[in-house]
Amino acid sequence: MAFFRGLAAVSRLRSRMGQDATTLGGVRWLQMQSASDLDLRSQLQEMIPEQQDRLKKLKSEHGKVQLGNITVDMVLGGMRGMTGMLWETSLLDPEEGIRFRGLSIPECQKVLPAAVKDGEPLPEGLLWLLLTGKVPTKEQVDALSKELLSRSTVPGYVYKAIDALPVTAHPMTQFTTGVMALQVDSEFQKAYNKGMPKTKFWEPTYEDCLNLISRLPQVASYVYRRIFKDGKAIAADNTLDYAANFSHMLGFDDPKMLELMRLYITIHTDHEGGNVSAHTGHLVGSALSDPYLSFAAALNGLAGPLHGLANQEVLLWIKSVMEETGSNITTDQLKEYVWKTLKSGKVVPGYGHGVLRNTDPRYSCQREFALKYLPEDPLFQLVSKLYEVVPPILTELGKVKNPWPNVDAHSGVLLNHFGLTEARYYTVLFGVSRSIGIGSQVCPPLQFPDASLFGFPSGNLDQLFVTQLIWDRALGLPLERPKSVTMEWLENHCKKVAA
C-alpha cells in the first residue's frame, strides 16, 4: 500500500476527530487499512519510488516558494526557529506537541499495537509507523520484533572495547564506544567501497539501521550492569518484545516496569529534526557516513546537559529538594526553594522548551502512567506539586517563553520508582530510544537525473547526494551545508538595510 494512502488515512482520521471527540471509530477504520504484508523492507521498496517522484515534483513546481525571513536574532540564537530541514518522520507543533507521521501521542496510544490489553504501544510499532507512515497490525509488529531479535547478536569485540574503558567512565561514553565498535560490521560501508549505485544506497543503510537498533539494548544493558551491578550481565529473553527484553537485561522484570519501558522508548524516539541529537545524526549522515558513525555523533550531542543529560539533572534536583525540605514539603516551602534555585543563577531543570509553548505531551502521558501505577510515590507527588508551583513563578520572572514542564521533568521519577535509581544512566535509555527516530529518517541518497533539481549545478552527483539515515538515503537529500557569516558581516548588512 502506498505511502500516500497512509497519509490519506491519517488525514481522514484527523478530520473525523475534529467532528467527533470519540476517536475509536476512526482508530478501528485506520487499522483496517493497514497492509497484511509482514515484511517491513518490502513495504519500503514499494513506497520509495513514489516518494522520490513526490520530492522531485515538489522541487520543480515549488522550489522558489519562500518559507520565511531570516532575522539577525535567528542567526545569533543558534538558528532557532529557522525552517531549513526536511524531516519526514515527525513534526513538532509549538502548541500541541509532537506528531509522529501525523499522529499525536494519545492517538498513537490508541492505534499502535500493545503487548497487553489496553497497554502502552510497542516501540516496534512506532518504528513501522515512522518508516512507512502506516499503522501496523499486531502481526506486523510481532514479525518485526522477531526480525530485530534475529539481528541482535553483538560481536565479542564490542564488549572488549567497552571493557578497555575505566568502569568510572560516564555511561554515555561507554555506550558511544560500543556503538563505534559496532561500526566494524557496517553494510553500507562495505557496499559503498564496492561501488554500489546510488539508487541502492538505501538498502545497506536499512540493514545497518535495523542491526543497530536491534543491538543497542544489549550494548546499553551491558554498560549498566558493568557500572552498577558488578559486571553481572543478564542474557536476553527471546520470548519478550524489544522494550521488555531491554528492561529484562537491565535486571527489571516487574510487568509495570516493562510497560514503562515500552512507553519510555516510544515517546523518546523522535522529536522532529532540529534538536541536537537528530540534527547531528542528519548532518553527519549527509556526508554519507554510515548509520553507526552518524548515530555515535548524535549520541555525543545527546550527552550534553542542555539536551539528553537533562533527565539526569532533573532527578538529582528533585532529590535535592526532598533531602533539604523533607517529604512533606508545603507549597510555600516549594515556592521558596524554586526561587532560591533561580536566584542562585540556576534553572529549574525539566521546565521550558526551545519550541513548545504548552505542557509537553510526553510529560502528560508519563503523568497519566504515574497516576495509574504509582500515585502514592513521594517523588511523583513532589513532581505534581512542582507542576502547580513552577509555571506561575517562571511566568512572573518574565524571561521564559515556555514555563511548562517538558519530557525530562517526569521520566526520572518513574524509572526511580521501579528501582532504576542511577540517574547517570538515564541518558543511555534516551539514546536507545532515539535510535529509532534517527534510524528511520536517515537513509541513502538516490540518483536523480539532474542535480539542478536541488539547486546545484548539473553533474557531480557523487558529492551531492548524501542524507539522513533510511529516508534520507532513499530521497537522496544533499550534503547539509548552511551558510555562516561573521558579526562584521551582520553589522554591515544591517547598516545597508537601515540606509
Low-pLDDT parts are 1-34, 443-468
Written as H for each helix and E for each strand, in order along the chain, the element string is HHHHEEEHHHHHHHHHHHHHHHHHHHH
Give the CA-based shape: globular
Determine the mean pLDDT. 83
CATH homologous superfamily title of the largest domain: Citrate Synthase, domain 1
The strand order across the widest sheet is 1-2-3
Radius of gyration over alpha carbons?
A: 23 Å
How would you sum up the major sheet?
3 strands, antiparallel
Percent of residues in helices: 55-70%
Any idea of the CATH topology of the largest domain? Citrate Synthase, domain 1
GO molecular function: acyltransferase activity, acyl groups converted into alkyl on transfer
Organism: Triticum aestivum (Wheat)
Family: Belongs to the citrate synthase family.
InterPro entries: Citrate_synth-like_lrg_a-sub, Citrate_synth-like_sm_a-sub, Citrate_synthase, Citrate_synthase_AS, Citrate_synthase_euk, Citrate_synthase_sf
